[in-house]
Every structure is written in C-alpha cells, then in structure tokens.
Amino acid sequence: MTGWFARAIGAAVLGGVLLAAASARAAEPVKFVLDWKFQGNHAIWGLALDRGYFAREGLAVTMDQGSGSGDAINKVASKVYDVGFADINLLVKFNADNPGNRVIAFFVIFERSMNAIVALKKSGIAAPKDLAGKLIGGAPGDSARQMFPIFARITGLDPASVRWQTINPTLRAPLLIKGDVDAITGFVSGTVFDLIGAGAKRDDIALLQYSSFGLDLYGNALVTSADFAAKHPDALRKFVRATIAGMRDAIADPVAGVASLKKREPLVDQALEVERFKLVLDAAMLTPEVKAKGFGTVDAGRLARGVAYVAEAFGVANPPKVADVYSDAFLPPAAQRQVAR
Rounded to two decimals, what is the model's pTM? Predict the structure, then answer.
C-alpha cells in the first residue's frame, strides 16, 4: 500500500511537472514594443503581465519601451516586433508608401487623438478663434502642427492668421512659460506635464484638444504587420483579451498599475505617471463613446474621414482604404469589451 501510494504521488508530481513544461512550451512568444518610454497609460500591459493575463491566454509576451510611434511602426513592419503601440494616423502615410508591407491597427486604445494646442490661460486663448494673430511654437515633425491646417478649416480659423516658430520639442514648455510663444503644439499627455515640470500650475494651462473641436481622429492603437495578422490571428485575439483585462485593472487602480512599470524601470516617477494616466483616461481612453459602447469600438465612417484628413495634411496622393489601415477581426464581442463587468 505504501509503495503504491508513493508511486502514485511520484506519478502525480511527474505529471504536474510535465504538464507545466508542456504549457511553457505551448506558450506562443510575442514581442511587443511601446510608443515611448514607460508612461502611466502603459500600466495596462504591466498589470496584464504581472497578473498573468497573457500567460492565461497562452502567450509569452515581452514588452519593450519605444522611441516614438513612427519607430514602433517601422519595427513592426520589419518584423523586429510582432505587435506595437502607435498612432493609427501614421499608418495612412506609411501604408501608402509601403503597400506591399502594410501595418494594420487591430485594437484602438485611444478613442480620441491627443493632438492639441496648449497655452497658458493668461494668454486669453480659450477657443480656436483666439489663436488669430498669435505665435505658436511647434516641432517640424509634430503631428499636431501638421494637422493644424485641417483643425483651422474645421473650426473656421484662417490658418494664415497664425504665426509659427519652429522649435525643438524639449524647448516648448520653457518658451511658453517665458512668453516667447503664445501657444505650443503637441500631445496633451506630454505638453501638460512638460509645463508642470517647468513650473506651471495645472489650473493655469489651457487645452485645445483637436478632438474637442470637431477633428475627431482616433489615436493610439495596437498595430501589427499584415503578414503577422494573417499567420497568427489567434495570438492577436488573445493579446486583445489580455489587454482588456489589464485595462480594467489599471483603471480601477492606477497606483498599482504604475507600480508595475516602476518595477521594470526604477526611474519612473510614480506620482507623476499616476497623474498622467488619469489625464489620458479623461482625454482619450474613458470617453463617453467608450463608456457607452466599450473598448475598441470603431466607427468606419469616422475612421474614413480621419484617413482623408490625414492624407490631406500629410500630402498623401494615394491614401489607403480603411480596410488597409484597420481590422476589427481580432476583437471579442462587444459584451466582453464593456468598461465594467
């Protein structure tokens, strides 16, 4: 009896080891690159990793910091990474220039683009019409600056009434605080905290987020190469499900979410990134549309208008079709994408 029992225990232990080993072997590796260095909104993937949501889906995900949306798209297109986090609008020009090596968005995280004009309230700038006669500082490659003519047209502002000063992105906040420029362009999530870091108070900052004035572009999304999507559709579906689980957890507890990033990068400023995440939630992630329809819901007509706007702003003569930029084939049903469950 004792020998039988010992053999049974040994067989169970061995079986458990073999099962664990088989599970580890079965996990599909996915390399994931972010759009930038760790910032608050990236907490959704920190928690998805730490709490085993990717592992539960059978994915072995490695997450690396990035160097910009354009760089993430290039790395996905070149197969250095399988999945990236990047601005969906940049796919319009990239896919027009690379029709044989397309990159597609498969889950929109930012329901609104965070492109904006940012000023100090003492300037009197509270609406687009207030920009007439003002000097705006912007970097040459900044998408908010490139989209400005479309923003001006939609809001009825004569773009010729605005003066521009080309500046380095790192100098935007100091120049605005000194009064050398009246306003600056950039992402809400970056410019606001650059200004706070340079000495401004949050209540003194005026935001003209393009999406609040009719230029309703979508923002950052999960992207992958068309080739990877064709060969690994189940991996993308699993990635989306794990991301949604991480989103819910990070929204419920931003402090824990940012802590998951600080564990990976000790230089992360936890207090600042928690505040940045809350700002991103309000500006782009937990919009009324998302609360009503769920994460990742995309309106085809709105996206088509966005593609046309971006093509016009960037001078794309042969813009891709919506289906060449975005696919909803990897989303779970809407009932599984609701903000609260």
Answer: 0.89
